[in-house]
Specification:
This protein is an all-alpha fold. It has two domains: 118 residues; 144 residues, no CATH class. The chain is built from nine helices and three strands. Strands 1-2-3 form a three-stranded antiparallel beta sheet. α2 runs antiparallel to α3 and α5 packs antiparallel against α7.
Length: 262
């Protein structure tokens, strides 16, 4: 069943990506519902694959690739949901291939699995961490698109990708909405870690904890400076990407070293 759901999701995501790419090149809008339908079908099948990967007899599988697939699934959910409210369809071109890669790795390379029993507090901490990371992944993609849009407008290149994006002010507002949601989730994640993780600064957790706190500080400074100093444009993009790099190293770096290299 895992292979079947994975293959269905990959085929649907690939078809949706190709169709969206054609929409972008030809500036068409008549195939939008088909792209959304294919993306939704891929998302549903991806969800089935994630469920089969995570739920094992030994507990919840929190291995490197299974968590990566879960995060890709959540990011796809966020983009699909957001695209119903705002025209953010071009994010599909980045998100769906990322989901395909995560699905394939989770199915073909199980790696070193880490199982957790269903402990309420600890699983709350893990869930909050994964949700925060997913939001910041989407915010980073949004920041890169915003930077591309701003540069193109300055050079008076308003065709292709830029022409299909919402207005610059709306893109910027959506970015900071995502950052606020991610920041709140990351704050709750750190707080729940202090409450439910036995030793947050143990040897195997210290790098993750320090890098996550550093990312939290960067996002906090960015949001504060946005509110009080009006930060925007390339400065906001650079700080968003910088915070995400730290968060990625903290979230995946330690898992990569502990599970796949050691």
């Amino acid at each position: 069943m895992l292979i079947v759901t994975t293959l269905i999701a990959i085929v649907c995501y690939m078809a949706a990506t190709a169709m969206q790419w054609q929409r972008l090149k030809q500036n068409r809008s008549d195939t939008r519902n088909k792209v959304l339908g294919l993306g939704l079908a891929g998302f549903i099948s991806h969800g089935g694959a994630v469920f089969l990967t995570l739920h094992q007899a030994e507990g919840v599988n929190l291995g490197f690739f299974s968590v990566g697939s879960l995060i890709a699934w959540l990011v796809a959910a966020l983009v699909l949901g957001s695209s119903l409210r705002q025209r953010l369809d071009n994010l599909f071109i980045g998100v769906f291939p990322m989901a395909i890669l995560a699905l394939a790795l989770a199915a073909l390379l199980p790696g070193s699995s880490q199982y957790r029993a269903f402990e309420g507090g600890l699983l709350v901490h893990i869930l909050l961490s994964i949700l925060a990371y997913s939001i910041f992944t989407l915010a980073t993609l949004q920041a890169i698109l915003l930077s591309r849009q701003e540069a193109a407008l300055k050079q008076h290149h308003t065709r292709g990708l830029v022409a299909s994006l919402p207005p610059l002010q709306l893109m910027e507002r959506l970015l900071f909405e995502m950052l606020w949601v991610g920041f709140i989730l990351l704050s709750l994640s750190l707080l729940s870690g202090m409450l439910f993780v036995e030793n947050l600064f143990a040897q195997h957790l210290v790098h993750k904890t320090v890098l996550s706190i550093a990312a939290w500080v960067i996002y906090g400074i960015l949001l504060a400076c946005r509110h009080f100093l009006g930060w925007r444009g390339s400065r906001a993009t650079n700080w968003t990407v910088g915070g995400f790099i730290l968060l990625m190293l903290g979230f995946f770096g330690s898992k990569l070293v502990l599970e796949l290299l050691l």
